[in-house]
Automatic annotation (TrEMBL), chain A:
Organism: Candidatus Desulfovibrio kirbyi
Top-level lineage group: Bacteria
GO cellular component: cell envelope
Gene designation per UniProt: hmcB
Keywords in alphabetical order: 4Fe-4S, Iron, Iron-sulfur, Membrane, Metal-binding, Repeat, Transmembrane, Transmembrane helix
Protein name, entry field: High-molecular-weight cytochrome c subunit B
Automatic annotation (TrEMBL), chain B:
Family affiliation: Belongs to the NrfD family.
Stretches that traverse the bilayer: 28-49, 61-89, 101-118, 138-157, 178-208, 220-243, 263-281, 301-319, 331-355, 367-387
Primary location class: membrane
Lineage, broadest ranks: Bacteria, Pseudomonadati, Thermodesulfobacteriota, Desulfovibrionia, Desulfovibrionales
Record protein name field: High-molecular-weight cytochrome c subunit C
Gene behind this protein: hmcC
Subcellular compartments: Cell membrane
Annotated organism of origin: Candidatus Desulfovibrio kirbyi
């Protein structure tokens, strides 16, 4: 991870990396999205989750999503690896980790500094003071770059809608929160596997759970720092082989599809080097190419001058030769003959386009 | 005179559409492709993107971005490459290559934008990027530069239609004079914009470090995309020239024909150096990023195929071809390079994208997506033919002999 960070600072500038490094140091500050201190989050404790899909059903209901073909009572669907989509903003997957089943709920993580927002070229995504990452479909162009950018593969797209296809993802039930209600999925959870609260408090809750049950959890709060930190954070069970697990949390998190290689900086920062180089190129390229143009102009001018000098010399030589010959002829054959010689030379030169002026 | 058998439209007979109605296989194939394309277009815009594509939530960008946008823009790089060579670097003997290159570049970009409309969920909202500018987005920068550069190319290209129409509408002459006076400014503006968006196309993928295979993902992707666009620009001039000599030879004047071979050799030499440089930076990047272990995998092998057979090989062939003045070899190298660029863009956007996902979730374009891409290319070729049949692109207009 450090290596990537190092490289991104060193080189993501791409075209004129040397020029842009100075710019980049600043870019991190200028482009950052606000991180709201008292914002809300959710702690998902996968050790408590039983895969009942009540959260899925609740999400479907409170958001008026289309009913699925298989009912939410059918728990067998958890066994297939699913992802969120335009019709399912949250899904519960069953992972088998070291022989034991672990259920994990997937939904938008509501990143502190979201990649989707950094990527959107029409400013559809906005991190809100309440912690949610809101999406405004009325200005969405449907380019789906946000989906390329989201490191968690969360947003879905309505590919089947011809006239108003939009990006869809968990809203953190922002409309319900405004009414003072809990998000649908959290209210529905019978196991208290989803804890709603201030993000800063949830980190403490997670730590105290780890402290109270040593060896139960992986020593890693997923989302505390990953991709710059997320509002929804996850606790995962430690596998039996405690020593190996504590040495490398990725060992226990990867089987749950939790990517620990995202780094602790917002994903969008990876592009700031390249974006920072833009003003540099705009400033530098015209000067560079203008200079090249001036040099080639100058080279042409010198070339022309040289050519003219050579031509002049040749002309002088020729007039000297013709005049000397004509004078000689004038001495021996008289001036009339000399004129004939001059005329003949002049005519001959005209043919090869070198008019003789003497 | 060199012109006497080129059909030059006159004031009274502006159009020369006879070529399109000739019963030749080329025209027939064109008609069929355009008809099929129109049908798919109707389906796409009435039934939705999902009805004709294999795109999914994990693969939101497929053939239409990977080929139409990434390859389209890159292969239209001949415009800036040739104008910079001719006007800025003072390679006067490139002159007859400028107009065809600018024409194809303009058409390339124009149809990239048209093709993009197929891929956008809300095509009519494309201008929203200017109303709600997402300045943190690489895509915003690409959009801004492509829009501006398309305008620049339109102005640069506009000389040809104006010379065509000047007989009928003499006021166009003033505009033409103005454009010609601005040539150098337009050229420098064009190369600046091209540098920006060619590299930014690579920068688009910087935001997906976990999705693009490490052998292709690099903080230097913008640089790779820019450097390879130069090679693509040079190669496309040669590659197009090859087809132009087959199809529209009878619209080329003596100057064009005389300079054509020399241009091929000059561009070949340039392309050979650029490709070597491209090979070196990609290879160094692989070492610096400690990606050596990845080479002993399927993707590693594939990466080596791209590097050796589609970058190093054309570089060597170009070098040999330009040294021995072997036209055939240079043309082969050009085709090889173009194919290599397409392969690289496919790798970044599709083949090495989502490399970690199980194969069942991976993407392969649907036949209809491919049809639309073919449709777009056919439209470019058809528009090019229309222009060449009517406007002084491959010949100098007798009324504007001196004027360059
Ligand atoms: S998880 Fe993805 S969609 Fe959700 S806020 Fe983060 S980047 Fe955006
Ligand atoms: S917070 Fe609301 S929208 Fe998000 S998963 Fe829960 S119920 Fe669905
Ligand atoms: S409702 Fe609670 S226990 Fe049930 S699947 Fe969802 S998170 Fe797990």
């Amino acid at each position: 991870m450090n290596r990537r960070k190092f490289l991104s600072i060193l080189g993501s500038a791409g075209v004129v990396s040397a020029l842009s490094t100075a710019r980049e140091a600043k870019a991190g500050g200028t482009h950052s999205f606000p991180y709201y201190e008292g914002s809300y989050g959710v702690l998902h404790d996968t050790t408590r989750c039983i895969g009942c899909r009540q959260c899925e059903a609740a999400c479907n209901q409170v958001n008026n999503l289309p009913k699925p073909q298989k009912s939410f009572d059918d728990l067998s669907v958890c066994a297939t690896r699913r992802r969120t989509s335009a019709r399912e903003w949250t899904v519960v997957n069953k992972y088998v980790v070291h022989g034991k089943p672990v259920f994990r709920k997937l939904q938008c993580f509501h990143c502190n500094d979201p990649a989707c927002a950094a990527a959107c070229f029409a400013k559809c995504f906005q991190k809100q003071p309440d912690g949610s990452v809101a999406y405004d479909g009325t200005q969405c162009v449907g380019c789906r770059y946000c989906m390329i950018a989201c490191p968690f593969y969360m947003p879905g797209f309505q590919y089947d809608d011809a006239f108003d296809p939009l990006v869809m993802k968990c809203t953190f039930c922002a409309p319900r929160m405004k009414e003072g209600k809990l998000p649908g999925c959290i209210e529905a959870c019978p196991m208290d596997a989803l804890t709603f609260g201030k993000r800063s408090d949830l980190i403490k809750v997670a730590r105290s759970r780890m402290r109270k049950s040593p060896g139960k959890y992986v020593d890693y709060i997923y989302g505390e720092w990953d991709a710059g930190g997320t509002a929804w954070i996850t606790l995962a069970p430690a596998s039996g082989t405690a020593t190996a697990a504590s040495a490398n949390p990725a060992h226990d998190l990867h089987p749950l599809d939790l990517d620990t290689h995202l780094g602790n900086r917002p994903i969008g920062e990876l592009t700031y080097g390249a974006l920072g180089a833009v003003p540099m190129i705009v400033a530098f390229w015209p000067v560079l190419f203008g200079g090249a143009y001036a040099i080639s102009k100058r080279r042409d001018a010198i070339h022309e001058a040289e050519k003219e000098a050579v031509a002049r010399e040749v002309k002088n030589d020729i007039s000297y030769v013709v005049n000397t010959a004509a004078n000689k002829v004038a001495e021996t054959h008289g001036p009339a003959a000399a004129d004939t010689v001059r005329q003949a030379a002049s005519d001959a030169l005209k043919v090869c386009e070198r008019p003789l002026r003497s | 005179m060199a012109h006497h058998n080129i059909i030059i439209p006159t004031k009274d007979k502006l159009f020369n559409l006879g070529e399109f109605s000739l019963r030749r296989p080329g025209n027939l194939v064109t008609a069929v492709i355009l008809a099929v394309g129109l049908i798919i277009t109707v389906i796409r815009f009435t039934q939705g993107i999902g009805s004709v594509t294999n795109l999914s939530d994990v693969q939101p960008w497929g053939m239409w971005i990977g080929f139409d946008l990434l390859c389209g823009v890159c292969l239209a790089a001949g415009g800036y490459f040739t104008t910079v060579g001719c006007y800025v670097m003072g390679m006067k003997h490139f002159h007859s290559a400028v107009r065809p290159a600018v024409t194809t570049a303009f058409l390339g970009y124009a149809f990239v934008v048209i093709a993009l409309l197929y891929d956008l969920g809300h095509p009519l909202r494309l201008p929203y990027m200017f109303f709600f500018p997402g300045t943190t987005s690489v895509l915003f920068e690409v959009g801004l530069c492509v829009a501006t550069y398309l305008t620049v190319l339109f102005v640069e290209f506009s000389i040809a239609p104006m010379e065509w129409l000047a007989g009928k509408f003499p006021f166009l002459l003033n505009w033409r004079k103005l454009v010609i006076r601005c040539t150098i400014i337009l050229t420098i503006f064009g190369v600046t914009l091209s540098t920006l968006h060619q590299s930014s196309l690579g920068a688009l993928y910087l935001i997906a470090p976990g999705k693009v295979h490490p052998l292709w993902y690099s903080p230097f992707m913008p640089m790779f995309f820019f450097v390879s666009s130069m090679a693509a620009g040079a190669s496309m001039v040669i590659f197009e020239g090859m087809f132009a000599h087959k199809g529209v030879h009878h619209y080329m004047d003596a100057t064009h024909l005389r300079e054509a071979d020399e241009i091929v050799f000059s561009f070949s030499k340039a392309a050979s150096f650029i490709l070597f440089a491209y090979f070196m930076i990609k290879f160094t990047d692989m070492l610096v990023q400690a990606n050596l272990p990845y080479l002993v995998s399927g993707y590693g092998l594939w990466w080596l195929v791209e590097m050796l057979f589609f970058i190093l090989m054309p570089a060597l062939l170009y070098a040999k071809g330009s040294r021995e003045r072997n036209l055939k070899l240079c043309r082969f190298a050009a085709a090889n390079t173009v194919l290599g660029i397409v392969l690289n863009r496919f790798n970044v956007s599709m083949i090495a994208f989502n490399y970690a996902l199980p194969s069942a979730e991976r993407y392969f374009p649907s036949i209809w997506e491919i049809c639309i891409s073919v449709f777009v290319v056919t439209m470019v070729v058809t528009a090019y033919r229309f222009i060449v049949y009517h406007m002084p692109v491959l010949y100098e207009h007798p009324d504007f002999k001196d004027a360059h």
